[in-house]
UniProtKB/TrEMBL annotation:
Keywords: NADP, Oxidoreductase. The lineage of its organism: Eukaryota, Fungi, Dikarya, Ascomycota, Pezizomycotina. The keyword Oxidoreductase applies. It comes from Bionectria ochroleuca. This is Uncharacterized protein. Belongs to the short-chain dehydrogenases/reductases (SDR) family. InterPro entries: NAD(P)-bd_dom_sf, SDR_fam. Coiled coil: none annotated. It comes from the Eukaryota.
Length: 336
């Protein structure tokens, strides 16, 4: 996506208000206590979802969010069961406990992997730079751990549950030169080489590469009814708490862009709902402005190098996650 297309989208395209009917369906939203996740929950309540689970790292903030949802929506919210499970994506053990709790729900029709962070401070979490852990490795650990309950839902309801990953149009800022190194994560985890003002972009590019790879491994949904649909989306630049701690020139640039271009959080959240409502044609695809638009992906992602990079980094990701969840590859490959 060129800078011009980005600015055009921000200023002149307003994704439509979702009108899908989610009656009887259960959803999980990570990072659901604020920002886009919270607004997505508000849309889902309006669209008659039966149950929403917010993944929150602070139970106090989660309780506040549920109060806000209940308070702001009157009777509409009474028909929807709202709950929260603790989730700290800087800790794999928390991701594993969260996934086990979600498995007890018995039915999950859609997951918004929305929790994400941007920071200029380099520190490690679970052996990786923390942005990579939260946005990439823990996100895909969770994605994979949720596959069994999504598969079960597909079989029991005869539907195609959605696994929607909230990425970013800013992935275009990186071509991941580290993918050619013997160990890409090791290169990215070197504090002497990390350019933290660019790290968020790298993490969002990795999310897209990993999501495409996962979708490919799960197979062609269009050929097989009632399969999990994995799609990814950018909400565009939106008002939220995401960039509040950024400092220096980078922080100032983002603040100016935010002032001039950002969508409201509610409008941005429409794109998350659009991904949950999208059909099999969105499997493995990228959504921009609330619709499938692969041309908005960077040319690197769409190139042969991008496909090779995705496969190589996926292998590294699996090798890392095997230490945490030894059967991780088997979960991905499990057939129904
Ligand atoms: N806003 C934008 O312009 C924009 C553009 C493109 C993509 N996105 C993506 O949209 C998603 C939502 O972001 P947002 O804009 O709504 O930002 P936000 O208001 O900062 O919300 C981020 C959410 O992620 C949670 N989170 C952060 N670190 C976490 C961790 N270690 N464990 C569990 N949860 C964690 C936050 O929890 P706390 O409240 O506890 O911090 C919060 O609920 C992110 O993936 C972001 O990359 C946003």
């Amino acid at each position: 996506m060129s800078l011009l297309s980005f600015v055009y989208s921000q200023l002149f395209v307003e994704p439509p208000i979702p009108d899908h009917d989610f009656s009887g369906q259960t959803f999980v939203i990570t990072g659901g206590n604020t920002g886009l996740g919270l607004e997505a929950a508000r849309h889902l309540i309006r669209l008659k979802a039966s149950r929403i689970i917010l993944g929150v790292r602070s139970m106090e903030k989660g309780a506040e969010a549920i109060k806000l949802l209940r308070g702001g929506m009157g009777d509409t919210s009474d028909a929807c069961s709202l709950d929260m499970f603790e989730l700290d994506m800087e800790k794999y053990s928390s991701v594993q406990i969260f996934a086990k709790s979600v498995a007890t729900l018995g039915r999950v029709d859609g997951v918004l992997l929305n929790a994400g962070k941007v920071t200029q401070d380099f520190y490690l979490a679970e052996g990786n730079e923390s942005t990579l852990t939260v946005n990439v490795t823990a996100t895909f650990l969770l994605a994979i751990l949720l596959l069994p309950i999504l598969r079960q839902t597909a079989i029991e309801t005869g539907s195609s549950p959605r696994l929607s990953i909230v990425t970013s149009d800013r992935h275009v800022e990186s071509n991941l030169p580290e993918w050619k190194e013997s160990n890409t994560f090791a290169a990215l985890n070197d504090p002497n080489r990390a350019i933290m003002d660019k790290r968020y972009h790298v993490s969002k590019l990795l999310q897209i590469l990993m999501a495409r790879n996962l979708a490919q491994l799960l197979g062609d949904v269009q050929e097989r009814a009632n399969q999990i649909i994995v799609n990814m989306l950018t909400p565009g630049m939106c008002k939220s708490g995401l960039t509040k701690d950024l400092r220096g020139l980078f922080g100032a640039q983002i603040a100016v862009m935010d002032y001039l271009l950002a969508r409201s959080t509610e409008v941005g959240a429409r794109t998350l709902i659009a991904a949950l409502a999208q059909g099999a044609e969105s499997h493995g695809k990228y959504m921009n402005d609330g619709r499938v638009q692969e041309s908005a992906l960077s040319s690197f992602v769409r190139s042969e190098a991008g496909t090779l990079a995705a496969a190589k980094v996926w292998e590294e990701l699996m090798s890392q996650l095997e230490h945490v969840q030894p059967d991780i590859r088997a979960i991905v490959c499990q057939k129904d």
